[in-house]
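Progress note, sequence design subtask.
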């Protein structure tokens, strides 16, 4: 029988038929169909509400391919040199201290702090640059204050857990009431570790970056993420 005729016959029998077996079959089919439909709808809405995926996201996308995401309090920068680090990196703004970028900086240097924890006056010249610091030994605010004193444009503090590839930490004030007038951000430990490692390979203490690439509030944003992190 032709497909359309089968459909018409089936629908007629479901509504008007006297055969109890057909009625039972219809009820079973419709119940299963509605359950599947509602389940898929619930999963889709849940993923959208958590910011995990938008309508254009391919969940099978490989880690180093372009992928669409958005985050409420995230800010991004991209490394344009060295080539091995040419990805977009996610940052999290300090929770209750520091300022925001008021302009876009293209091709600015991201320099490693020396000493790397930045809990004392720096040995290297960081004036007008973005400084990469490793978490630990002193507060986030102290680190930011020290590089600000040295003339830095901004501080990026990476986790000292080099395996951390997905957990963003709230950097909070240390209750000393000190005021910081430069931006300060948290960077995943895995990202920070890879940046330092690759800079060591090319025998440099700095990378070239574009910052900020602010993706907040946009419905769709394509970013080339590092293959070693999850976001």
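Output:
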């Amino acid at each position: 029988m032709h497909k359309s005729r089968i459909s018409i016959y089936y629908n007629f029998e479901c509504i008007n038929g006297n055969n109890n077996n057909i009625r039972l079959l219809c009820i079973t089919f419709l119940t299963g169909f509605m359950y599947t439909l509602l389940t898929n709808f619930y999963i889709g809405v849940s993923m959208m509400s958590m910011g995990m995926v938008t309508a254009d996201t391919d969940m099978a996308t490989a880690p180093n391919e372009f992928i669409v995401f958005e985050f409420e309090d995230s800010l991004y920068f991209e490394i344009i040199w060295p080539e091995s680090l040419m990805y977009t990196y996610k940052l999290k703004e300090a929770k209750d201290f520091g300022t925001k970028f008021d302009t876009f900086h293209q091709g600015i240097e991201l320099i490693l702090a020396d000493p790397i924890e930045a809990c004392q006056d720096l040995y290297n010249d960081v004036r007008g640059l973005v400084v990469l610091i490793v978490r630990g030994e002193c507060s986030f605010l102290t680190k930011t204050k020290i590089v600000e004193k040295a003339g830095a444009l901004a501080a990026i503090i990476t986790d000292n857990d080099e395996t951390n590839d997905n957990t963003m930490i709230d950097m909070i004030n240390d209750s000393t009431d000190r005021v910081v007038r430069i931006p300060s951000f948290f960077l995943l430990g895995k990202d920070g570790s890879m940046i330092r490692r690759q800079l060591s390979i090319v025998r440099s203490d700095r990378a070239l970056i574009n910052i900020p690439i602010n993706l907040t509030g946009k419905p769709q944003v394509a970013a080339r993420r590092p293959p070693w992190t999850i976001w």
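The longest strand covers residues 74-81. Work on this subtask will continue into the next period as scheduled.
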